[in-house]
Write a structure and sequence with these properties.
Layout lengths: L1 H39 L5 E3 L6 E3 L10 E7 L5 E8 L7 E5 L2 E5 L12 E5 L9 E8 L9 E13 L6 E3 L10 E7 L5 E8 L7 E5 L2 E5 L8 E9 L9 E8 L9 E10 L4 H13 L7 E2 L11 E7 L3 E8 L5 E10 L2 E7 L12 E9 L2 E9 L2
Parallel strand pairs: 1-3, 9-11
Antiparallel strand pairs: 2-9, 3-8, 4-7, 4-9, 5-6, 5-8, 10-17, 11-16, 12-15, 12-17, 13-14, 13-16, 18-19, 19-22, 20-21, 20-23, 23-24
Length: 386
């Protein structure tokens, strides 16, 4: 009996070990399936727009989107503008941009380990879904199986209008209230200076609404009566800022509105050639009014600000004269002289690349730029942010 009892016990132990081994194999199979499912899952999710954060394969930053990043925005009728910045694009074919699966553009080149400035791509209405969700994808077609740095940030979609546009948009009492912060327009490229005309509504102070051309500030909208339309206003868009062979974007940006709800708006927006007579004279007088200064010379705020690595400085000359434009550090030392020559009357634009007179990058910090034309002197502040 004792032997029989021992045989039964030993048999039970062997059966228990066999079942335990079967259980272990089953658990391993499940783990393998989980790993396979995890790998097979989509690498990126659709990020709602607007999205300021940076995504991609960014040195010392996000490295969870090595191949592509997708963004989503709600559909509505009308053309739209996709704005963004890209990081470290080495070839013209490195990053392609898709809208709802159709390629619409390629990201332009940038410097190594550097962010581009603000870039814009027109999304035509016939490619944008009027209802439901639209998907914009930045796809790094050259990355796999390599590991090149690349990325995208400050991605946004804004609906815009073709110029000419007579309708009123903004935050207008008794009218359109769907553009509380800004209104965007676009027009086809052209050569030469161009005159932008418009009417403005309810502009209470000289700094309330700024006008931008392709990202560069060109004017402060003049003051109007409260809750009334004022016009006709206008500004000369200098040829140096206009893209001759592609789309140009005009943005009226209500910088003082958020988080307020001030009434404001624009209408009767159009562009045309600058004639030698009334249009140019009217533009000069309006710009003088917009600057809120009795002097006919004007030094505008640089854009963008803060900036890295470049910014643009615009100034206006009422007559030909010798012009000096210099950059100074916080100690008052001149670090770069951008202009030192005789220049004609008109509208001038200078780009500073953030480097000193010896070509070396300046450190982060606050700088001043100073314009001197005869007895006229003006100084403004800018910030280099790295």
């Amino acid at each position: 009996m004792r032997w029989l009892y021992r045989i039964i016990i030993i048999s039970g132990l062997l059966l228990q070990r066999a079942f335990a081994q079967d259980d272990r194999i089953a658990v391993d199979d499940v783990n393998q399936n989980v790993e396979k499912n995890t790998v097979a899952a989509p690498a990126t999710a659709c990020i709602p727009l607007p999205a300021a954060a940076a995504h991609g394969l960014i040195q010392t930053g996000d490295q969870s989107h090595p191949d592509k990043v997708s963004y989503c925005f709600a559909g509505q009728p009308g053309d739209a503008v996709l704005s963004f910045q890209v990081y470290d694009i080495d070839t013209q074919k490195e990053v392609d941009i898709f809208l709802n699966g159709a390629k619409i553009s390629a990201a332009p080149l940038t410097g190594n380990n550097k962010w581009s400035g603000n870039l814009r791509v027109l999304l035509l209405d016939n490619f944008v879904k009027n209802t439901g969700t639209n998907e914009v994808t930045f796809e790094n077609t050259q990355n796999p199986p390599n590991a090149w740095w690349w990325g995208v940030r400050r991605v946004a979609v804004e609906y815009c209008y073709t110029i000419p546009s007579p309708l009123g948009y903004g935050n207008i009492q008794g009218g359109d209230q769907s553009h509380a912060d800004k209104v965007a327009y676009y027009f086809d490229g052209r050569a030469g200076d161009t005159y932008l005309s418009y009417q403005a509504y309810g502009i209470d102070n000289i700094n309330e609404v700024d006008v931008f051309l392709n990202g560069a500030k060109v004017q402060d909208v003049p003051v109007t009566g409260a809750q009334t339309w004022g016009g006709d206003f206008g500004v000369v868009l200098p040829d140096a800022l206009i893209k001759d062979a592609s789309v140009n974007f005009i943005v009226f940006d209500n910088t003082q509105n958020p988080p307020k709800s001030d009434w404001w708006g624009v209408r009767q927006v159009s562009v045309g050639e600058v004639s030698a007579g009334s249009a140019l004279s009217r533009a000069k007088s309006l710009n003088a009014a917009a600057s809120a200064s009795p002097d006919e010379f004007l030094l505008a705020h640089n854009y963008p600000n803060p900036f890295n690595p470049t910014t643009q400085i615009r100034y206006e000359l009422s007559k030909a004269d010798h012009v000096t434009l210099s950059i100074y550090n916080s100690l008052g030392q001149e670090v770069r002289r951008l202009v030192d020559l005789e220049q004609p009357a008109g509208y001038h634009l200078v780009t500073w690349n953030g480097r000193d007179q010896q070509g070396k990058p300046v450190p982060s910090g606050v700088y001043h730029y100073r314009l001197q034309v005869g007895d006229f002197v003006a100084t403004k502040k800018m910030t280099v942010a790295k």
